[in-house]
Amino acid sequence: MAEGADTANSGALNTLKKKIVDQTAEGASVVPEDMSRNALHYGEDHIGETATHSQEEAAFEASSPISDDAGSSSSSQPMQTGTATGSSGSGVGSTGAAPLNATPAPDVNIGAGPAREAAAPQEMASPDEIETTTSSNMAQKPSSAATPQAAPVDVNDAPEEIQLSGTAVAENADGAVIGTLNVIDPDAADSHSFTLSDERFEVVDGAVKLKDGVTLDHEEATSITLDVTATDAGGASVTQSFEIAVEDVNEGPERVEMSGTAVAENADGAVIGTLNVIDPDAADSHSFTLSDERFE
C-alpha cells in the first residue's frame, strides 16, 4: 500500500515538474515590448521560478509520509495542483505551479527604485507653457524703455522761400503798391521782418510799396531789381531777388521848339522854321495845329 502511494506521488511530482518546465519555457518565449520592460520580465520570471521551487518542496513534503499513519492519510487524499500567473507588460507572464486554493504570488515590479525612475522619460513642457513662462519673465524684467523720455527740443529752421504777389508798377505813380510778401518757412508759426535793397521801397503790413512822394519813370528804367530779405525770430534768413517792371504811361509833350522865328516880307510861302517837340515819350509821334490860317 505504501509502495503504491509512493509511486502515485512520484508520478504526480514528475507531472508537476513537466508543467513547470513547459510553463517556464512558454514565459521565456514572450518577446518584451520595449527595452524598458526587460528588467520587469526578467524579475517576474525569477519570481515565478522561486514560487515554483517553494511550491514543489511543499508538494513533496505533503506527499512523503512521516509515518504509516501519515502515509495512509496522504495517500487517501488526491494531489491537487493549481497555477499562479505573474503579470507582465505584454499581458503574458511566467507561471508557476501551486497547490489548489493557494494564494497567488503578488506582482512584484523588479527594478523599481532610482534606476527605474531614471529610465522613465521626463515630462516635457508644452509650447504654450514655455511661451507663458517666457512672457511672465519678460513682464517681470525691468526695462529701460519704461524710463520717461525727454520731449524733443524744437530747432529753429530758416525760411526757405519768399513770394511776392506783384512784380510791376506804373510810372509816375506816387507811393504805388507793388505786391504782398509771403514767406515759406518750415516753422509755420514763425514771424518775419524784411529788408529791401532799394531805398525807394518799403514794406508796410507785409506789402512792398514805393515810399510816399516817390515815383518811377519808364523812360528812365524799364525795370528794377529788388532784393528782399526775410529774417525769422530766430535770426535765420533767406534773400530772394525780384524783377520789378516799370510800366509805361503816355505822357504829354512838354514843349515845342521851332528852329526859326523870322520871315522876310513879300516872301511868298517862305519857311519860317522847323518844329521840335519835347516829349517824355521819346518814341511818340505828334501832330500840329496852328493858330493862324496863313501858316501851315
What is the residue-averaged pLDDT?
A: 72
What's the story with the biggest beta sheet? 4 strands, antiparallel
Strand residue percentage: 15-25%
The low-confidence runs, each spanning 5 or more residues with pLDDT under 50, are 28-48, 65-103, 105-120
How many strands appear in the DSSP assignment?
12
Shape: rod-shaped
| Helix-strand string | HHHEEHHEEEEEEEEEE
Structural class: alpha+beta
Structure description:
The chain is α+β, with helices and mostly antiparallel strands and 296 residues long. Helices cover 27% and strands 23% of the residues. The protein has five helices and twelve strands. It has helices at 2-28, 38-63, 68-75, 114-119, 127-140; strands at 81-85, 95-99, 161-164, 168-170, 177-184, 192-196, 201-204, 207-210, 223-232, 237-247, 255-258, 275-278. The strands form four sheets. A four-stranded antiparallel sheet has the order 3-5-8-7, with no helix packed on it. Strand 9 (223-232) and strand 10 (237-247) form a beta hairpin. Helix 1 runs antiparallel to helix 2. The longest helix is centred in the N-terminal third of the chain and has 27 residues, at 2-28. The N and C termini lie far apart (198 Å). Residues 28-48, 65-103 and 105-120 have low confidence and may be disordered.
